[in-house]
User: Which sequence fits this backbone?
């Protein structure tokens, strides 16, 4: 089925929001508080997962410390993330997509509390038809959050596109047979993203905007 695109679902960190550096710094700070070794690469590799999954992957030998480490991470992130902001061009992209008649949504590994905070910070809550955070559903790459967004919007998977910077985003979309687009300016490499057969891998926000608008026009013309 070659249906018209009506919905674009975005990951948040590393896709819309320039926050990867602060996430890594806050994870390393929290790990250090509890004498847990953690490299930049390992911290970066789990961006996109829900926080319980992050703790399980990064600190598997100290499950009794997970809640304390995650609280330390969250406290540090909130205290030091004042400079986090949209990637350049994101605000314009979201408005252009809305102007083209598309609905927008967010599917993120953040907690609901964290997502609501950054939606308020960017004054963007009204831009999104639906949002899902990992704390209120299953973590990526399980496709449940996408299924919930589709149910809320009344659309099918083939009427939506998932956009993300990690394998977790694209695998989640693949698991529900939703078209998907990767971005290379976030966490995972182009080679990693290509394993999940994206329609396109965008190297800049402008590239992403142009592809999405052109893809929508092509699908509408079919």
Assistant:
């Amino acid at each position: 089925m070659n249906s018209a695109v009506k919905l674009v679902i975005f990951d948040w960190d590393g896709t819309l929001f320039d926050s990867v550096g602060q996430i890594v710094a806050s994870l390393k700070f929290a790990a250090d508080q509890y004498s847990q070794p953690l490299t930049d690469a390992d911290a970066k590799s789990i961006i996109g997962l829900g926080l319980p999954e992050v703790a399980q992957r990064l600190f598997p030998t100290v499950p009794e410390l997970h809640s304390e480490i995650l609280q330390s991470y969250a406290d540090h992130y909130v205290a030091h993330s004042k400079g986090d902001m949209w990637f350049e061009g994101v605000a314009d992209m979201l408005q252009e997509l809305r102007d083209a008649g598309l609905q927008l949504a967010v599917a993120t590994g953040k907690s609901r509390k964290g997502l609501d905070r950054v939606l308020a910070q960017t004054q963007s809550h009204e831009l999104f038809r639906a949002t899902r955070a990992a704390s209120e559903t299953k973590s990526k790459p399980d496709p449940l959050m996408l299924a919930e967004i589709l149910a809320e919007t009344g659309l099918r998977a083939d009427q939506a596109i998932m956009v993300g910077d990690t394998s977790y985003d694209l695998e989640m979309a693949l698991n529900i047979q939703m078209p998907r687009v990767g971005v290379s300016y976030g966490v995972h490499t182009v080679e990693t993203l290509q394993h999940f057969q994206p329609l396109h891998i965008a190297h800049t926000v402008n590239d992403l905007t142009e592809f999405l608008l052109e893809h929508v026009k092509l699908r509408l013309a079919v």
In short: The chain has two domains: 7-18+86-221, 20-80. The chain has a mean pLDDT of 92. The chain is about 45% helix and 10% strand.
